[in-house]
Structures are given as structure tokens and as C-alpha cells.
Amino acid sequence: MYKLICRDGNAKRGEFHTVHGTIQTPVFMNVGTVAAIKGAVSTTDLQQLKTQVELSNTYHLHVRTGDKVIKKLGGLHKFMVWDKPILTDSGGFQVFSLAGLRKIKEEGVYFNSHIDGSKIFMGPEESMQIQSNLASTIAMAFDECPPHPATREYMQNSVDRTTRWLERCKKEMKRLNSLEDTINRNQMLFGINQGGTFEDIRIEHAKRITDLDLDGYALGGLAVGESHEEMYRIIEETVPYLPLEKPTYLMGVGTPANILEAVDRGVDFFDCVYPSRNGRHGHAYTNHGKMNLMNARYELDDRPIEEGCQCPACKHYSRAYIRHLLKAKEMLGLRLLVMHNLYFYNNMMEEIRNAIEEKRYKEYKKAKLEGFAEGEA
């Protein structure tokens, strides 16, 4: 259940109550695709990085290790030793992005595994069954993530099918949550709004899925090649047609600046691989822009990545040492950067929540964006 605490302009400050604890929103979900954050970051690490929600992927866990195995082991929470909320992505995006050979039909999608080429079928019912086996807190509906750009006709047909699939997801989840052997019988379902950059298709779809009275709503199919300006326009046009009293989730977005702009337009939930991926490439997020720790200028720099940061990397290690680890190809260097970046994102979300509560979000956003524009610290 979502409780809207207050608003500052369109920015929302809320609480989302789940069977695995309360999520303070706006929130950034830390991406652990295969039930682990890339960069050797454990769930015990996540606890000290201010992580509220961990996100895992249905498709990846289905094709490797297997959701039935995870169910036998007690579900994802027990498997990865994590007692807070978990959101599972439906697998739709991966089916459409990873599977080169695929056939989309009304019943679902036929495709080949990217691991061993074996034939797989996934439709709304299969996606719900896999996510129920994983026993995540929040399951995402199975949808088509249409290509960008797509013709208007293609987009409309795709969105119509996604709506029909969503109705099937809702029905199947209700059935699964009633079964005795289901691990999490309080699993929630979020629907996904699609429509590319056609705002009228987006708005009409938002209205249709709102009628289904789901636990939350996501904006999908953005950050797939359109400009930031187009993305902000679509968010601005679509969010008012999604229910205010439910969480709104912008999937796969994004940079700290993207998050600040989307919060200003009424978005509550975010996820992105950037903090961990950039950390693994030697890049650190700071309040003064992104740093490349591989640069020679940090060779003798004994300061932390960011002065005042309370993450495990900044509390103990210098830029010079982390640079040395990167140069020596020691995994610890990547691990420290990933931990710093996740802490930076999670801490920024805490600042955002405080700014909204104190009715100073516009000023906070402006100062933060100006800091990011400064360049390397």
C-alpha cells in the first residue's frame, strides 16, 4: 500500500508498505540482475550502503540456475540473504533486447536462450509463474518493449497487446497468490505504460491500465535512444494520467540528473545499472561531477573520492590507493568504486526525500545540477 506523505510541486514524498518492509520514496533500486550486484558487493554490504530495494531479473534467473531451483531453496530473499524488498523485472526487456531470433505472438514470445541457444517460450502466465517462484516483493507485468524508433501503427498494435497481456498477468497472479505452496502470497503487481514517444498513445494506455487498479505503475520503453528532452516531455505528459495514490516507476533510468528531473515530474521509483557499471570502469559519481580514477592526476591524491562521504570506500581509502588498485587490476578497486557509487545514489535519494518534505526541492535540484556541471573534483 502506498501512502503519499507530501508534495512539493509535482515531486512526491511517500511510503510504500510491503510484506518485506516499508520503502521510503523516492527510491533508487540497486540492480542485482542475477541476484547479486556486479562488482563483488554482498547483501551485507548493501545494508550499509542505504539500499532499500534490490532488483533482480526474471529472464536471467530463469535461464541460469532456474526459478524452480530458487523456489526449492526458499525463494530469492532466503537464497541471497536479503530481508528487505526485492523487485523482479518481468524479463520482457531482455527477451526483446537479447534474443536476436524471436517470434512475437498473441500467446507470448518464442525465442532462443542467449546462453545455450535452447528454445524458450515466455508469455504473461510464464513470467508470473517464474516471479512467483522467485517470491519477490514486487513483480513486473510482462510487456513488449517496442523498438525505437517504431512506426505509429507498430506502436499502437504493440501497446494494445501489452494491455491484453497485463490483464492476463493480473489474473494469473491472483491465482498464484491463492495457492498453498506459493512462498510470497502477498506478491504485488506493477503494470507498465508503453507508447514510445507518441504522447497520445502513452496517455490512452495510462488511462487503460489505471482502470486495472494495480499496486503500482511503471513507465517503460524510455532511455532506449530518444533524447533526454523527449524523455522528460513524455514523463511530463504521461504521469498526470497515472494514479497519484500509487507509486510511479521510471524503468532503467538513469543518471543522477535524469533522476532529479524525473522526481520533479512525479516519479517515485528508479533503477539503473550506471552506478555499478561505471564503478567497474573506474568512474565515481560525486557532487562535483563524474571522476575517472584512472587519470594520472590522482596518482598522489591522498583525499577520499569525495570529502565528507560516509561510504566504506571514502571513510578508509584514498583516490591514490583506489587508482593503484585499478591500475594493478585488483578487484578491490572496482568493488570500492561500486560501493561508493551505490552509496552516492542512495544517499542522494535520502536528500531528495528531505528536500521534498522541507518544500525546497526546486532549490535542491538547481544546486545539485550546478554541482554536477562543475566537472571532475
Automatic annotation (TrEMBL):
The keyword 4Fe-4S does not apply. Pathway: tRNA modification; tRNA-queuosine biosynthesis. Residues 10-370 form the tRNA-guanine(15) transglycosylase-like domain. The active site is at D89, D271. One of its GO terms (biological process) is tRNA queuosine(34) biosynthetic process. Keywords: Glycosyltransferase, Metal-binding, Queuosine biosynthesis, Transferase, tRNA processing, Zinc. Homodimer. Within each dimer, one monomer is responsible for RNA recognition and catalysis, while the other monomer binds to the replacement base PreQ1. This is Queuine tRNA-ribosyltransferase. It comes from Anaerocolumna aminovalerica.
